């Protein structure tokens, strides 16, 4: 079931009486990026997927600062009357998840970060198709002319094995404007430049699971070791998987997430 509370598109799966699990997508994506995992997760949780501002079916926002994005997600949880939720973020969605825990520790019981780059020095040279789509002056033109096949190629370029790309995700990605994408990326970069994620997590003291693809082409897979210094953090590497474990290895990723929510 989908809703639009507090101007964010929200989709619910599973029993409302089950333990809540909030899923936050990465930049240039939507809640649909979690689709291949939903059947497994919804059997154990009340799964809540949000489309962040300007992404998928959520309208643009005046600000894309990570703190403001986290505030909008907090408003959704407040509206649902939920607290002590397990929050999972994919890629830069992990920054929004971390910021939510920083702002509202009363709402976040545990964190799972999937393919979330820990620090600026871990960023690798990006796949050519992504650089072409985002770099001016041709970027805005190519972005506006994206075909479904180009969107699929862009997503696949971040994977290390064939990815199960849902049609609804392609539709949602098409809805994201070039201007929104550039703003979102700049705000996530600023958040990471300000302080690394492991530093932020150490200050929070929240039970944390980190899942990283062992063949991630966007973030150096060895950088996952930076999270090992976070007290109590559990770091899991998926061999042969790229930046999109949700699409490349949904069963293994769901199993790790479910084991974590059972233990934490």
What does this structure look like?
The protein has 264 residues and is of the alpha/beta class. The chain has a single domain, classed as Alpha/Beta hydrolase fold, catalytic domain (Rossmann fold, 3-Layer(aba) Sandwich), CATH 3.40.50. Helices cover 41% and strands 16% of the residues. It has eleven helices and eight strands. The protein has helices spanning 35-42, 66-80, 93-103, 128-134, 139-144, 148-156, 167-174, 178-194, 197-204, 245-248, 250-263, and strands at 2-3, 9-13, 20-24, 46-51, 85-90, 108-114, 208-213, 234-238. Strands 1-2-4-3-5-6-7-8 form an eight-stranded mixed sheet, sandwiched between helices. β1 (2-3) and β2 form a beta hairpin. The longest helix has 17 residues, at 178-194. The two termini are 27 Å apart.
Question: What are the defining features of this structure?
Answer:
264 residues, alpha/beta, Rossmann fold, 8-stranded mixed beta sheet, 11 helices, 41% helix, globular
Concise summary:
The protein is an alpha/beta fold and 264 residues long. It is built from eleven helices and eight strands.
Shape: globular
User: In the CATH hierarchy, what is the class?
Assistant: Alpha Beta
**Computed Rg:** 17 Å
Please, what is the oligomeric state? Answer: single chain
> Strands of the biggest beta sheet: in what spatial order?
1-2-4-3-5-6-7-8
Task: List SSEs in N-to-C order.
Answer: EEEHEHEHEHHHHHHEEHH
Helix content: 40-55%
Topology record:
Blueprint: E1 2-3, E2 9-13, E3 20-24, H1 35-42, E4 46-51, H2 66-80, E5 85-90, H3 93-103, E6 108-114, H4 128-134, H5 139-144, H6 148-156, H7 167-174, H8 178-194, H9 197-204, E7 208-213, E8 234-238, H10 245-248, H11 250-263
Parallel strand pairs: 3-4, 3-5, 5-6, 6-7, 7-8
Antiparallel strand pairs: 1-2, 2-4
Helix pairs in contact: 1-11, 2-3, 3-9
């Amino acid at each position: 079931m989908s809703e639009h509370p507090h101007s964010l598109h929200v989709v619910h799966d599973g029993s409302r009486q089950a333990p809540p699990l909030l899923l936050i997508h990465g930049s240039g994506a939507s809640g649909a990026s979690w689709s291949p995992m939903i059947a497994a997760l919804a059997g154990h949780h009340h799964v809540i997927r949000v489309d962040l501002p300007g992404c998928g079916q959520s309208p643009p926002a005046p600000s894309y600062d990570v703190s403001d994005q986290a505030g909008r997600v907090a408003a959704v949880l407040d509206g649902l009357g939920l607290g002590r939720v397990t929050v999972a973020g994919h890629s830069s969605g992990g920054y929004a998840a971390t910021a939510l825990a920083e702002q509202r520790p009363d709402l976040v019981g545990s964190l799972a970060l999937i393919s979330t780059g820990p620090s600026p020095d871990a960023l690798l040279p990006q796949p050519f198709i992504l650089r072409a789509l985002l770099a001016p002056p041709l970027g805005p033109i190519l972005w506006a002319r994206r075909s479904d096949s180009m969107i699929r190629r862009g997503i696949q370029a971040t994977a290390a094995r064939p990815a199960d790309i849902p049609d609804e995700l392609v539709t949602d990605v098409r809805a994201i404007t070039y201007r929104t994408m550039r703003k979102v990326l700049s705000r996530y970069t600023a958040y990471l430049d300000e302080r690394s994620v492991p530093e932020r997590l150490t200050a929070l003291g929240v039970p944390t699971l980190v899942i990283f693809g062992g063949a991630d082409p966007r973030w150096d897979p060895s950088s996952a070791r930076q999270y090992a210094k976070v007290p109590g953090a559990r770091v899991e590497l998926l061999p042969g998987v790229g930046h999109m474990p949700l699409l490349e290895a949904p069963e293994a990723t769901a199993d790790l997430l479910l084991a974590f929510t059972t233990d934490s």
